[in-house]
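FORM 7B: Structural annotation worksheet

SECTION A. Query
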Amino acid sequence: MYKYIQDSIRNNSRLLLKDLTVPQKKAVTETIRGLFVRGTPILRHLAQNENISAKKQGDKYSYHLGNIQLKEKVEQSALNKVRNHMRKNTIIAYDLTDINKAAAKKMEKLSVVFDGSKRKTANGYTLHGLGVNGILLKLEVHEGEKYTQNQIRRKIVEKYTQKFDLKGILVIDRGNDDKQFFTFLRHEQKAQFVARLKSNRNVVVKETGAIMKVENLPVGKYQVYLMNTHNTNVDLRAVFTLVIYAHINNEKPPIRLLASLDHTYSSEEIVHMYLQRWGIENIFKKVKQKFNLEKIRVLNYQKFVNLIALIQFAINVSTVTFIKIQKSTYLLISGVLMHYKNFLKIKALTFNLDSFIKFALKPLIVRCQKDPPRQLNLLSRRQLEKLGPS
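SECTION B. Predicted structure
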């Protein structure tokens, strides 16, 4: 049953293992397998060999992760999976997430991050994420000592705009509401995008010429200009579409979206495009919850980056395999699907990627626990038999 899943992991790992030495290949292979088995990034817990101590195996994985470069290979593997499926209106979701390491003191290149779940700042790492069709193209650790978040964001967008030949619609949240970034996307990258705006964003309504804060505009669809860098003049180089759409919860403010699109779309279509951004939020949730990102303990930055890359790889392999078993009629894959459905009945889970990851994470190699040494009995066997069963 699990042979198909193992074969899928092995086939997808080929690009990662290319150009590595034999010991490095073995360490990376065991680390990937361990991630699927244990669902944790703690290296000692990924141990596969019952005859070698978990500490020794964890040290081996740690050593080799510090001497290789996996990030680019993982990203290339992800790109290969989506490149041929890109269309003009394919949604490309960009967002940020964080790893809270409030208790960490010795991990390299820690920075201050905002923990959205706890609504407070803490030590940790910021991650740049880019997702297409459920595949995580980017899960890049932000290196704050060298670059600002804006620089990394531009670098990512520029790279993938070229890779996709201007196909796709970039969707970004209001945390990326940046007038200069919008100008960069529209005029330098010629990219289509939909961005959620903050309530205090100033726009110039084309019809009236009035400068308005978007919070003061009623629900509707507008043609607008943006102001220049210093808000002294109107930037007339491009007209944008502004959509003010009533929130499904009447107590919440409306959704305010700025779009630069090649074709005319209705307000509902633009809102639907934006809502597809939640796909990457769900990927972040899977990465954090199913692979326990915040439990990473490696102190060296290069090891940390490589481990993040392997987790990105694991979630992508899970996604591709999950999609494939639903589409294929091949007997072996149908058998995996049958066992998966039985698993769902036992675990009372729904048919989705979250439950499939739990299913796929069942041990491929079981690390047997040694029985404790047998304790000598104080009484003889005959006396014990007289006493009867305990």
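SECTION C. Observations
The chain is about 40% helix and 20% strand. Residues 301-327 form the longest helix (27 residues).

SECTION D. Sign-off
Analyst initials: ____
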